[in-house]
Amino acid sequence: MKVEVYKSTDQNPNLTNYEETRDNFDWQEVEKHFSWHETGKFNMAYECIDKHVDDGYGDKTALHYKNGDSRSSYTFKDLKTASNKAANVLKDAGVEKGDRVFIFMARSPELYTSLLGALKIGAIVGPLFEAFMEKAVKDRLQNSEAKVIITSPELVGRIPVDDLPDLEKVILVGENVSADYVDFKTEYEKASDEFDIEWLDKEDGLILHYTSGSTGQPKGVLHVQYAMVQHYISGKYVLDLKEDDVYWCTADPGWVTGTSYGIFAPWLNRATNVVVGGRFSPEAWYGAIEDLNVTVWYSAPTAFRMLMGAGDEIVKKYDLSSLRHVLSVGEPLNPEVVKWGMDVYHLRIHDTWWMTETGAHMIVNFPSMDIKGGSMGKPIPGVEAAIIDDSGNELPVNRMGNLALKANWPSMMREIWKNKPKFDSYFIGEWYVSGDSAYQDEDGYFWFQGRVDDVIMTAGERVGPFEIESKLVEHEAVQEAGVIGKPDPVRGEIVKAFISLREGYSPSDELKEDIRVYVKEGLAAHAAPREIEFKDKLPKTRSGKIMRRVLKAWELNIDAGDLSSMDDD
Ligand code: WT7
């Protein structure tokens, strides 16, 4: 296929030059931006909010929240006060520096203020996506030994308190809260609006994001305070955030994009941040851009494909002229989508590649760079990327291999919670190995090829086949299950399960639906298989491991390759 090149626009001659920045880049220079460079006192919440009040920007709008027709706005001063109050509520509930505090609620102003409040105490925040059901919640809280969780009446029933010995308090944001819980709103009203921020070290914990791998339970990826250096500079260069920008990142804070780029990067850059509650619809999304005059918009290929599917007519009903910079993350951004973006928005969609583990941007279409449709772009200044073989040797251009990054950069994860072997397994020598395969072309652009492992990317969310398989086999009818990602034009991939049934059960559409609902209600909606196929027997290795590779080959009608390890009797 012919590669389309989209030139960097001449509209904005002030864009930071890529090569020049990269060649002169020094992380220590970036540190000078922060107050801790002088004081040695670290706190992410201070740098995001209070510092701007201290610097005289207290009356600037920090947050627009929109959900349907309701809308509210908060200045930096408002958020300073609100997060101080939330910090006092949490402190009264016993939260101390280093404790894990989970936040499990739908996007709302309280989600953001309580997250900032927890950070002011020096707690490590664990954000949980609202779609998680009981088992997913339990696994994450157990693994991290969470002390406190903040939640809402709709979700509180999914927290199995009896199985969580370390959980001391459940804080409920709602009305008429029973005595079993801490009543957030009542405590918040009573709380002082002064709070002494806990000053931390650069390597103290910040946030714990659970993410899926191919073989085990979800792993807790720990990031530290020092990550802010990279959140700040990538917000400045890649998101191109300026003083008067109104910035909207569509991701939920349950995922890393929703914290690194939905909270930290915009506020470290003093931008006005937009949060839109409720579900996706083209009307709601274009309406938000129009109403709030969004200038910089960060979303995902799945969303762009859905907007593309909604047709070009709807775009014309909204005034999107405030938009000046559009970015994408989460899965491969199809060249057709970039082309469509040029046609309807008259803007380039800038792809960015990174992972929960990397904490911030790694490979991007820098604003001043020419975009090759379908390419992820080049490493950000300060990061070195390469394609390596399984022994750690760098491969020449145009050869596919492991996409790897030279550790260390500021936002690199510091540990997999309580799992050193897992952490160590990411490295070959000095290289962090991403689990993606890619190649680099003669101009230095990186091209994504696929995951090396069996991790499924569905609608921009990473789901581990093992977690779903484990849930499936808990269903009374399921003997064995193998789960793969099946290519899908809108979602990138969908979850497909191959299932063999126990004695006494026979395949039917009702059973498929029952199994689907079982995963949806027991684990998470996005993990529920959209397709189920019953098989008498699943392909396994002699050691009894289900061979997802073979299931995938069946699905795609391709050769399954070397089957020597398969147990075929
Ligand atoms: C995996 C990481 C960090 C943001 C959201 C996902 C895939 C991410 C791209 C991209 C192709 C991409 C990779 C990666 N991915 N961005 N621009 N092009 N693939 O974070 O859940 O940690 O998933 O998402 O496979 O390894 P995550």
Features:
alpha/beta, 569 residues, binds 5'-O-[(S)-butoxy(hydroxy)phosphoryl]adenosine, 18 helices, 30% helix, five-stranded parallel beta sheet, 31 strands, nine-stranded mixed beta sheet
Describe the structure.
With 569 residues, the chain is α/β, with parallel strands linked by helices. The protein is 30% helix and 25% strand. It has 18 helices and 31 strands. The strands form eight sheets. It has a nine-stranded mixed beta sheet with strand order 3-2-12-11-13-14-15-16-18, with helices on both faces. A five-stranded parallel beta sheet has the order 5-4-6-7-8, sandwiched between helices. Strand 28 (492-501), helix 17 and strand 29 (531-534) form a beta-alpha-beta unit. Helix 5 packs across helix 6 (109-121) and helix 5 packs across helix 8 (184-190). The protein is globular, with a radius of gyration of 24 Å. It starts with a strand and ends with a strand. The mean pLDDT is 94. The structure holds 5'-O-[(S)-butoxy(hydroxy)phosphoryl]adenosine. 5'-O-[(S)-butoxy(hydroxy)phosphoryl]adenosine binds next to helix 10, strand 15, strand 23 and strand 24.
Mind sketching the topology for me?
Blueprint lengths: L4 E2 L11 H6 L3 H5 L4 H4 L4 H11 L6 E7 L2 E6 H17 L7 E5 L4 H13 L2 E5 L5 H11 L3 E4 L17 E4 L9 E2 H7 L14 E7 L7 E6 L3 H10 L8 E4 L6 H13 L3 E5 L5 H11 L3 E4 L1 H9 L3 H4 L8 E5 L5 H11 L3 E5 L9 E2 L6 E2 L5 E2 L5 E4 L12 E6 L8 E2 L3 H5 L2 E2 L2 E10 L5 E6 L4 E3 L2 E3 L1 H8 L5 E11 L3 E10 L7 H14 L8 E4 L5 E2 L6 H9 L9 E2 L2
Parallel strand pairs: 2-12, 4-5, 4-6, 6-7, 7-8, 11-12, 11-13, 13-14, 14-15, 28-29
Antiparallel strand pairs: 1-17, 2-3, 9-10, 10-21, 15-16, 16-18, 19-20, 20-23, 22-23, 23-24, 25-26, 27-28, 30-31
Helix pairs in contact: 4-5, 4-10, 5-6, 5-8, 9-10
The protein binds 5'-O-[(S)-butoxy(hydroxy)phosphoryl]adenosine.
Keywords: Acetylation, ATP-binding, Ligase, Nucleotide-binding
Protein name: Putative long chain fatty acid-CoA ligase VraA
GO molecular function: acetate-CoA ligase activity
